[in-house]
Amino acid sequence: MPSRSLAMPELACADCPIRHRAVCARCESDELEQLDAIKYYRRFEAGQTIAWAGDQMDFVASVVEGVASLTQTMEDGRRQMVGLLLPSDFLGRPNRESVAYDVTATTDVMLCCFRRVPFQTLISETPHISQRLLEMTLDELDAAREWMLLLGRKTAREKIASFLSIIARRDASLKNRPNANELVFDLPLTREAMADYLGLTLETVSRQMSALKRDGVIELKGKRHITVPDVSALMEETGDDADGGMFG
Amino acid sequence: MPSRSLAMPELACADCPIRHRAVCARCESDELEQLDAIKYYRRFEAGQTIAWAGDQMDFVASVVEGVASLTQTMEDGRRQMVGLLLPSDFLGRPNRESVAYDVTATTDVMLCCFRRVPFQTLISETPHISQRLLEMTLDELDAAREWMLLLGRKTAREKIASFLSIIARRDASLKNRPNANELVFDLPLTREAMADYLGLTLETVSRQMSALKRDGVIELKGKRHITVPDVSALMEETGDDADGGMFG
DNA sequence: GGTTGTATTTGATCGAAATCAAATCAGCCC
DNA sequence: GGGCTGATTTGATTTCGATCAAATACAACC
Q: ipTM of the predicted structure?
């Protein structure tokens, strides 16, 4: 169900993929023009911090390209990722002045930013947008809750398998799959970032990746390029209900 | 920041505590009358299931009294709580037909229910309410993310201490504390439910409760009645930043 | 090609929490 | 009071993932 939004009608919009999720598909063109008036693009390099927890953030944004993440850090350095933003995901909290978590560019990232104050004005005057934001926030909440099950109850192997299936589900290259049963994609995260996502150490991530490879569940070309020869075999490993899902 | 809503202005409304969070404080009285027209009360006993994951739910609701929880269960029985609803919390997802998680009455619960379809109509016609729901959902998302840090990175002892401080923060009896440094409240959950909340086993919960008692961080009267003689000592144990917080 | 620095893998060991098992406590009903 | 039931505590042992440590792969740069 976090994939719900993928099923929503998309606006054909060549210059700004943002609108696909950030903006209600029912918006009138003049509303879209107002959005255009307050938007600008911004690029961040891999590893760069986009905002620190507690900072003022004078924009909200949508991810155009690349991956950004939200993380929380404890004083002693323990770190947990609490949000992973892929292209078309929304960043920022309308009506909140400050950011609650560190926002980092996990890969090179291109953001489409909307200036915060005028964006909020637009929301308050455009119920469509506010309703769309509610939908998106509910989707995020669903994703967070699925993530909680993973963190609280899954084994290391199940965590890795779940992560791979989550990334695969969102990966663009999905669109042209030659073989319906096979799956090929690139990992946008280092082993360390995966560990932060999964509540593991990077050593455990590496070991479990090796184990899945040894058992033929995945194949690796380089460190980041993954082939899943049999999707259902991967799904078996996630611990989730085998039903539904993106892959038939 | 999950406590943000507590700081919001509350409507004086003797018969229905719901409004305090569920409905925008800026609503006009005729909008409140419309809400009254579609609401009804419903009681559930401890242990009773309010809805199963996947069920249609023909109402949304606000918790008036007692505690309800959202849980996810894996086929082999592993269980993770993903939502804990205390009085004034909102239950249900506007514009979603079905429930995503099992909803259970953790104690005896009184709900103030709003019939779903008319409630949705009201939302779409009343931007205030839709914006209030967005605020509430953002609060829930913040809470979920704090919870993710707990599940992914905290030790068993830190989890217990964090849980106690979360419950204490929300407990009604807080309102009349004789001694600002001391804290007295009742646990609304069994050890098993705590385990489901924290991603632990009930034995570990029990052991860590005993350890905190042994170390003088908490005192126990019966199994459920907790006294925290020194709030800052408890906060030390949570692993969280010592700053801010409800207790000064 | 060699060097440097980072990312990743692999190995050995340790420890926190899970698991398995039993005892104790607290209501509750008669 | 006494027995019954479910909740909780406590104990013994195991196990999975963390930690500590070292080797290997890889890309960028000279």
A: 0.90
For the cut 70, the answer to whether the pLDDT of residue A1 exceeds it is: no
Domain boundaries of chain B, sorted by first residue: 4-150, 155-238
Q: Is the CB of A161 under 7 A from strand D?
A: no
Token pair of A121, please? 């004005």
CATH number of A155-238: 1.10.10.10
Backbone torsions φ then ψ of B103, nearest 5 degrees: -110, 125
- CA distances, A146 to each of A19, A38, A238, B145, B203 (Å): 26, 34, 12, 12, 25
- Kindly tell me if the per-residue pLDDT of B240 is higher than 80: yes
Distance, CA of A231 to CA of B16 (rounded, Å): 51
β B68-73/A219-221 pair status? unpaired
**Does the structural domain B4-150 have CATH classification 1.25.40.10?**
no
What's the rounded mean pLDDT across residues B41-54? 93
DSSP 8-state class, residue A174? G
Nucleotides of D under 7 A from a protein CB: 7-12, 16-21, 26-27
Please report, rounded to a whole number, the percentage of residues in chain B having pLDDT higher than 90: 55
Q: Does A70 touch chain B (CB under 8 A)?
A: yes
Give the Å distances, CA to CA, from A238 to A159, A224, A234, B33, B75. Answer: 7, 20, 7, 48, 12
pLDDT of residue B71: 97
